[in-house]
Amino acid sequence: MPAIVNRIFARWVEETEGYLASWERLQRAGYGSEAGGVKRILDEIVPFRLRRATGLSLTNRDVSPENLIVCEAGVRLIDPVPIVYDGLAFAGDVLNNFNTLFPSFHRSPRYERHRFDRYRPLLCSFADGFLEGYAQGDPEMLYALRVEQFLMLLDLTCHHIGLLEHDMTEEAVLRYGDKTAMEERIPTYIAGMEQFRLL
Fold first, then answer.
1. Coil, strand, or helix at residue 169?
2. 127 near 102, Cβ under 8 Å?
3. What is the pLDDT of residue 77?
4. Residue 108's Cα: distance from chain center in Å?
5. Contact, 123 vs 99, CB < 8 A?
6. In this predicted structure, what is the pLDDT of residue 83?
7. Over the stretch 4-40, which tens digit does the pLDDT of each residue have?
8. Largest CB tally within 10 Å, which of 32, 53, 87, 105?
9. Other residues' Cβ atoms within 10 Å of the Cβ of residue 163
């Protein structure tokens, strides 16, 4: 196995096992009672993710609507710095971004001018079409994508909690909004995880 593949696989295992620590972070932050279902889902999906083979892809990282270009040939994505990682992980990120992140970031300076909260149904339709096109009716692929979407939502929630534990940098405020905006999002994210359906 080439060295880069070994490094990526080691990172994959470490990242996957780290999701259990994310549950502990929710508990320490006082959200344990609201997020009981999160632990049950993690107990199911962490072993699944460790068993599934990673498929390395050259992947775009910034899939925000402002980086989409619609032209005669279809939709194109601009990303000057793609990376190599698991394609399903980034597909789950796309699903989380369009279903959750963009509609909830209307109070962050980077996204407020777009008012994505007003276009939630359109963004969710984009995500639904993306999911349908990616899975192509394969229930195993659908499950794997939903696992990754759930983990991205968990990451987003824990990242918010982590940012609230420190002074906000100017860059963080531009991306995420102020602490009040972030505090208001966390219960919504936790409710989303509690109501999450893997299939």
1. coil
2. no
3. 66
4. 17
5. yes
6. 75
7. 778 888 888 999 999 999 999 999 999 988 888 999 9
8. 105
9. 17
The two structure tokens encoding residue 115: 């008012």
| Residue 165 falls inside a structural domain | yes
Phi first, then psi, for residue 86 (nearest 5°) are -70, 125
DSSP code at position 20? H
Residues of the chain with pLDDT under 70: 1, 60-63, 66-68, 77-81
54 vs 8: CA distance, rounded Å: 9
Task: Kindly list the distances between the CA atom of residue 142 and the CA atoms of 84, 145, 193, in Å, as whole numbers in the listed order.
Answer: 22, 5, 17
199 assigned to some structural domain: no
Picking from 151, 136, 196, the residue whose alpha carbon sits closest to that of residue 48 is 151
In a domain, 83, yes or no: yes
CATH number for position 125: 3.90.1200
Q: What is the DSSP string of 125-141?
A: HHHHHHHHHHHTT-HHH
Helix (H/G/I), strand (E/B), else coil: 76: strand
**pTM above 0.85?**
yes
With vertex at residue 36, the alpha carbon angle to CA 154 and CA 42, rounded to the nearest 5 degrees, is 50
Q: Round to the nearest angstrom and report the end-to-end CA distance of the chain.
A: 34
Q: What domain range is 86 assigned to? A: 3-194
Per-position b or e across 124-154, b if 16+ CB within 10 A of its CB: bebbeebbeebbeeeeeebbbbbbbbbbbbb
Q: Is residue 49 part of a domain?
A: yes
